[in-house]
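Journal club prep — side note

Before the paper discussion, L.F. wants everyone to see what a predicted structure for a comparable chain looks like in token form. Sequence:
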Amino acid sequence: MAKKGKKITKVCKLQFNAGQAKPGPALASAGINMPQFCTAFNDATKDRMGDIVPVIITAYEDKSFEFVLKTTPASVMLKKAAGIKTAASNSKQTAGKITKAQLREIAEYKMPDLNANDIEGAMNIIAGTARNMGIEIVGE
């Protein structure tokens, strides 16, 4: 989706806290106007405060840019739902528990970014992430 006549110089995948992007080394490497990006990103994510927001930035030769916001990572959402700070060090341990309803809610939110055809497929993907983190799904 490059702007007509503009040459793409770089595509960066970064993560920032919603509404809290600041100029820094990660943005400097993108070669864009950092204050302009930070203002645009913070305005676009102010309704998601407290979440980590992945963003894909497309930088052009003239220092202009476009960005696409993604959904919060499943691991972050699973930890929040289970009420834990860190996942288990291996999948054999149990770090926390979530309900099937919470799993469905996370899968519905993540659906646009998942490679799934329906909500059941999305739930299976999220359930796999939960298992790897040591989060048990109760009600299965």
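L.F.'s comment for the group: The first strand starts at residue 8 and ends at 17. Keep this in mind when we get to the figures.
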